[in-house]
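Please produce the structure of this protein holding adenosine-5'-diphosphate.
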Amino acid sequence: MSKNKILSINNVHVEIEGKEIVKGVSLQINSGEKHAIMGKNGSGKSSLANALAGHPNYEITSGTVELDGENLLDKSATERSLAGLFLGFQYPLTIPGVTVANFLRAAIKARNGDGIDIKNFRKVFKEKMKLLKIEDSFATRYLNDGFSGGEKKRLEILQMAMLRPKLAILDETDSGLDIDALKIVANGIMESAPKDGGVILVTHYQRMLDYIKPDMVHIMIDGRIVKTGGAELALELEAGGYDKLETEVSQEVGV
Amino acid sequence: MNTVTMRKNSIDFRGQNRFEPEWLYNIRKESWNYYNDLELPHRSNHLWRYTNAQDLLPNNLEELIKIIPSLPDQSENDSSYGDEDFSGYGYNRSDFMTFARLSHDFEKSGVVFKDLLTASRENEDIVKKHLGQLVGYGFGKFEAMNLALWNTGLFLYVPDNIEIKKPIRLQRHPSGPNTIHRLLVVVGNNSKLTLIDDYSGECRKEEAQSNSAVEIFTGDASNVKYFNTQRLSNSCISYITQRAQISRDAKFVSVFAGIGSKISKFNTGTILNGEGAESKLYGIVFGNENQHFDYHTMHHHTASNSYSDIDFKVVLKDEAKSAATGLIRVEEDALNCQAYQVNRNLLLNEGPKAESIPELEILCDQVQCSHGATVGPIDQDMLFYLMSRGVDYKEAMNIITLGYLEPTIEKFPVELGELTRELLATKMKG
Ligand SMILES: Nc1ncnc2c1ncn2[C@@H]1O[C@H](COP(=O)(O)OP(=O)(O)O)[C@@H](O)[C@H]1O
Ligand SMILES: [Mg+2]
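Below is the modeled complex.
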C-alpha cells in the first residue's frame, strides 16, 4: 500500500466564542492507518473533530489542514463532506420529520453518482443495515428520534458505511454501547471503514481498541497532544489512568 | 384613527336581479346595509391586531355591486364528467360564471352540486335554511360584504347515507380586482365526503382581492374532510372565513395549507354542536419574502363529550410575518370535553416575525384541555449535521423545513398530505 498522506494537520488552534480550546495540534495520517485520540472529558477532542468538519462555532484561528493533498479549511462543511471527510458525532442530532432513509438519500444524492448510485440506494442501504444489525423498521423512523444511545451510534456507522469517506473521525462512537453493541459497531467500522483512507477513533476507553487495533495512539490533554505512541500506549493509559500520565507530562513540560 | 364611517359615502344597493329569488335579494340587501353600518375593524380588536383592515377593503364598490353571478351555460354544465380521481369538480370562470360537475355515479343519489344562484331557486328550502347561518352579516364587516356581494358561489348537498369516496375538487381562481366567493355545504346523517377547496392562480391585477366565505353543516355520524389550500400568487390579497358545524357523533377533519398571497387572513373554526362530535384541525403555513399571514383557528364546544384537536405549524423565511391566534371555547353545559391545541413556528433566518397566541374560554370545569405555543429559530446544530453529510445549505434548510412540518402533515388524510407535500416542493423550488 502506498504511504500517501490522507490527512495532515499542522499546528491547529481552535477557538469557541473567543476562547482557545485546541492549542496547537499536529497529526499526520497515512492511507490505511487507524489512529486513536484519547483524553479526558474536556480535553478538546470533540472541538478538534467539529472544527475539522467545519462547524461554524469552532473557529480554526491558525494552522493548516489538508485532506488527501487538498486544503480543507477553505471549504464549507458541505464541501468537506464531499471531499471525503466524515464525522461520526459524539451526540448525534435528532431530526424530527426526516426519516433515516430520506436523510441518507439526500446525502447520497448530494454526491451525484460519486459513490453509490442513487438507483442502488435501496440495495446498499439494506446491506449496511444488516451489517450493523439495524432493523428494517428504522428506515422509516425519524432520524434519531427516540433512539437509544447505542442505536444512534450504530446509525452513525451506517452513515459512514453508506458515504464511504476517505477519512472518518469517529467521536466516541463506543460510548454508551453495551458489549454486544460494541462488537457490532466495531465490526461495522472494520468492514466499512475506508481501506485506503484513514480513521480517527476518538475515545477515552481502551475497550474499543481491543476490536480495532490502532496504528497510533495520541493522548490529548488541555488542547494539546502530549504523547504519541503505538497501540500499547492505550494499554498503559488504561493501567495507570490519566492522572498518572498528566503528572508525568506536566513534570516534563513544567521543568 | 382607523375607523371609517361608511354611511356618508355609502352607495345604494342595486335592484333585484331577475335570476335571484326575493328572499336572497333581501338577504343581500340587508347584508349590504349591515356592511355600511359596521365600522372598519380597528386594531384594538384582538383579531385585527396584526392586519390592517384597510388593506382588505375594495376600492371599487360601485362596480362590484353590479356584478351578479351569471347563470352557468347549461350545455357546459351538463357536459359529461369522466375524471377518474374526483367525484366532482367545481370552478369559477373569470367572468364570474360558476360551474359544478358531478360524476355520473351520483346521478340518482340525490346529491346536489351546482352554482349557488341556481341552487337558491331550485333548492330554495335547503339554501334558505343554511345560507349565512355560520358566516353571516353578523360575523363581521368583511363577512357582511361577502353575503351582500358574492359574485361566484357553489352549493353542495349530500343527503343522508351517501358515501362519496373520491374527493370533490373546487378550483377558485380570482379574477378581476375582486372575487367574492361563497360556498355552502350541507351533508346529511351518516354520509361521507372529502372536499378539496383550492385557491390558486395569478391575480391579474396587482393586489387583486379574494374574499371567501365557507359554511359547512354536517349531519349526525357523518364523516367529512375539508381541505383548504391557499396558493394564490404573491400579489393577491386573500381573506377566507370558514365555519363548520358538526352534529352528534360526526367526525370532521379540516386541513389547511397556506403558502400564497401577499396578505392572507384566514379564520377557520368548527362548532362541535352534538354529543360525541370530533373535530380535528390541522394546518401549515409556509411564508417567504414579504408575505403576511394572519390565521385564526377556533374550536367551540357546545355539546358534551366532544373532542377537538388542533395542530398548526408555521415556517417563515426572508421577511415574512405570521400571527396565529387559536381560540378554544367550551360552554358551561358541555361536559367532559377534550380540547387540545398546539401551534409551532419555525423561523429560518433573522428577518421573519411570528406571534402565537392561544386563547382559552373554558366555562366548564369538567374538561381536559391542553395548549402549547412555540416560536423558535432553526437549530444550527441540526443544520450542521445535514451539511456534514454533504447536503448543501439550501437543501439542508429545505429538509429541516419539511421535517418540521411533516409530523403535522402526517396527520392529514393521506391524499391531502400528498397534495400538501407537492405544494411545498413547488414553493421551495420557486
Ligand atoms: N459549543 C461549545 N460552547 C462552549 N464551550 C464548549 C463548546 N464545546 C466545547 N466547549 C468547551 O471546550 C472544552 C473542550 O470540550 P470538548 O472538545 O467537548 O472536549 P472532549 O471532547 O475532549 O470531551 C470544554 O471545556 C468544553 O466546555
Ligand atoms: Mg467529546
